[in-house]
Write a sequence for this structure.
């Protein structure tokens, strides 16, 4: 590629494309031309380890032969079939497989295109359910969401969102939501204090449910870790306790596993860590291994059955590409890879490697904290945050590693099949970035 063309592409990328979550005034991004395994390559031939799995979705690396082949094979059949009045074998097989693997009782799958749309439909299904279940409760109009929640960027999902920087501006457009505390487990990490903390958080949710008894449509929660909030890990037992509260108060539980699901935490579904089976479960991102847009909302039989009957009970909701066969083929191949990796010696070894590496890095500075579950990790600066994390990530580019800062936090979310050597490179590069940031500052 000529220098002229490269310059022109970079200029157009800055001026014509409006990049997500980016201040375009000073935008300076990479233009990636190709990728292989855990590595991205830009138009200048520079290679970067994809330590963020292309925003938490590339589970098995880029150009994985099995996923590539599944998509190619599907292309020879059909690329797209509408979900309205039709289906395709691979989409049906995927739905059946997801219900088989999901927590007990989730027997139906509504396909969407991205995370936000999966959460939107979960909320609409829950709302409509109370209006047409065997003993309708139309007075249920409220949602309870977690402090600092992030469920996507559509208006409905922004309403349940609680990250001030992203959501506050839109408040006048949003329906009111009951908000509990953000169950930040990092306040106390020793076991006894963490258990007390968990009970305190749960008491706040109990109070909210009690004050609004009979009026709550659903509680919506990201399980175990609120990623976009800055990798906020919950105290152990919080999800389980929240699910029990929902049962006690007879409301629905929507679990949003868009970021933490599909094997990221070492289990296929994050809910499994606390033996929770929600009423509605949203998955996306890693579902297709980071290849194609697809998300899904799984629901229980009780919910699905309440939509059966005459036309008035129909769920009038859909997305053009919901259940797309190319995406479904990618998801089937991804699931096969993920199922064989989960619990394997190599994945356990990588999780330990990340744990040891992050612990070492966190000892670098008193203000630095590390958190991790499976291959979902982060380093967080307790003070001087956003500028330090941005500065470390900038330094990492010099070492050929791409990580994207998130406030005062550096999420470390590599492909779950990352090699020992690549993970070592990532961890060593972080040390280099810290050397040049923390020591110098
Ligand atoms: C927990 C959670 N829910 C929903 C979303 C929205 O997903 P999407 O960007 O695919 O709409 C995200 C995205 O990061 C997320 O982390």
């Amino acid at each position: 590629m000529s220098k002229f063309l490269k310059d022109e592409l970079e200029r157009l990328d800055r001026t014509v494309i409006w990049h997500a979550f980016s201040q375009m005034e000073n935008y300076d991004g990479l233009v990636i031309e190709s990728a292989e395994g855990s590595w991205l390559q830009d138009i200048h031939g520079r290679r970067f380890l994809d330590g963020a799995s292309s925003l938490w979705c590339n589970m098995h690396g880029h150009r994985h032969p099995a996923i590539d082949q599944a998509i190619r094979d599907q292309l020879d059949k059909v690329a797209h079939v509408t979900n309205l009045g039709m289906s395709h074998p691979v989409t049906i097989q995927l739905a059946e497989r997801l219900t088989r693997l999901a927590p007990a009782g989730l027997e139906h799958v509504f396909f969407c295109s991205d995370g936000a749309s999966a959460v939107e439909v979960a909320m609409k299904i829950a709302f409509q359910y109370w209006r047409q279940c065997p003993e309708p409760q139309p007075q249920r109009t409220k949602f309870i969401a977690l402090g600092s929640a992030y469920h996507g960027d559509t208006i409905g999902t922004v309403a349940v969102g609680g990250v001030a920087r992203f959501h506050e501006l839109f408040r006048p457009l949003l329906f009111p939501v009951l908000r509990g505390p953000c169950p930040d487990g990092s306040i106390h990490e020793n076991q006894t204090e963490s258990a007390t903390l968990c009970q305190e958080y749960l008491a706040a949710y109990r109070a909210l449910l009690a004050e609004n008894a009979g009026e709550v449509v659903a509680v919506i929660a990201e399980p175990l870790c609120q990623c976009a909030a800055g990798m906020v890990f919950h105290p152990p037992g919080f999800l389980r306790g929240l699910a029990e509260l929902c049962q006690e108060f007879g409301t629905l539980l929507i679990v949003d596993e868009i970021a933490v699901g599909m094997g990221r935490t070492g289990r296929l579904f994050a809910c499994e860590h606390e033996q929770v089976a929600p009423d509605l479960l949203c998955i996306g991102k890693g579902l297709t291994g980071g290849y194609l847009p697809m998300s899904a909302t799984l629901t229980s039989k009780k919910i699905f059955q309440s939509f059966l009957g005459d036309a008035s009970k129909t769920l009038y909701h859909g997305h053009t590409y919901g259940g797309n066969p190319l995406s479904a083929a990618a998801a089937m191949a991804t699931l096969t890879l993920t199922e064989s990796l989960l619990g394997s010696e190599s994945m356990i070894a990588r999780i330990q490697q990340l744990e040891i590496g992050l612990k070492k890095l966190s000892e670098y500075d008193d203000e630095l904290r590390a958190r991790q579950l499976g291959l979902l990790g982060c380093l967080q600066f307790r003070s001087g945050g956003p500028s330090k994390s941005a500065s470390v990530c900038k330094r990492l580019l010099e070492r050929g590693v791409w990580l994207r800062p998130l406030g005062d936090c550096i999420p470390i979310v590599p492909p779950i099949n990352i090699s020992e050597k690549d993970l070592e490179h990532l961890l060593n590069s972080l040390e280099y970035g810290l050397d040049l940031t923390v020591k110098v500052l």
About this structure: The radius of gyration is 22 Å. The chain has a mean pLDDT of 96. The domain at 68-341 is CATH 3.40.640.10 (Aspartate Aminotransferase; domain 2).
